[in-house]
Design brief:
With about 170 residues, this protein is of the alpha/beta class. The protein has a single domain, classed as Rossmann fold, CATH 3.40.50.620. The chain has six helices and five strands. A five-stranded parallel β-sheet has the order 3-2-1-4-5, with helices on both faces. Strand 4, helix 4 and strand 5 form a beta-alpha-beta unit. Helix 2 runs antiparallel to helix 6. The model has no long low-confidence stretch (mean pLDDT about 90).
Length: about 170
């Protein structure tokens, strides 16, 4: 049995990349279930947030069908931007309670200082994975490569996401 019932992993996933996969695997090592929160869920169609919530959700669902992750217990939720720490913390508590848990039963997995500070304020233990290959696996760098038509972006995201994005959508070259 794993140490926690639930791991909460929040990101924008613009796009879902190998660094996200690294953290997701850490979540699965720590907890029986994982809640993936897609942050800035109301944002889309911009340079920093090209894909909408549903598209990002589909990326994650494709990754979850990969053989190494198949059968893992995962829930994906939308987390809109709330520019107030207390209100955002209340939203996170509500998401956790809707999943049938209390904050003290959950571990927050990630490296964002602001997110982790709020997790701690609402009694969520924090596990920092460290930034995996951050120089290569930063969303803005991947999106820049995609816009430039540089196929090296494909080595930075899971193969299932490459296939999905090639078939579905690419950020526009504004």
């Amino acid at each position: 049995m794993r140490k926690y019932k639930v791991a909460l992993f929040i990101g924008r996933f613009q796009p879902f990349h190998e660094g996200h996969l690294y953290s997701l695997n850490k979540c699965l090592e720590l907890a029986d279930r994982v809640i993936v929160g897609i942050g800035s869920s109301q944002e889309s169609g911009t340079e920093n947030n090209p894909w909408d919530y549903e598209t990002r959700k589909k990326m994650i669902e494709k990754v979850m069908r990969e053989p190494s992750l198949e059968g893992s217990s995962l829930q994906i939720v939308a987390i809109p931007d709330v520019h107030d720490d207390k209100k955002w913390g209340d939203l996170i508590k509500e998401i956790i309670e809707q999943a049938g848990q209390q904050p003290y039963q959950v571990v927050g997995v990630g490296n964002n200082e602001w997110t982790n500070r709020i997790f701690r304020a609402i009694n969520i233990e924090v596990y920092e994975t460290g930034l995996y290959k951050r120089d290569e696996l930063e969303g803005i760098k991947i999106r820049t490569l995609m816009r430039a038509g540089d196929d090296s972006w494909k080595s930075r995201v899971p193969k299932s996401v490459v296939k999905f994005l090639e078939e579905y959508d690419k950020p526009s070259k504004d």
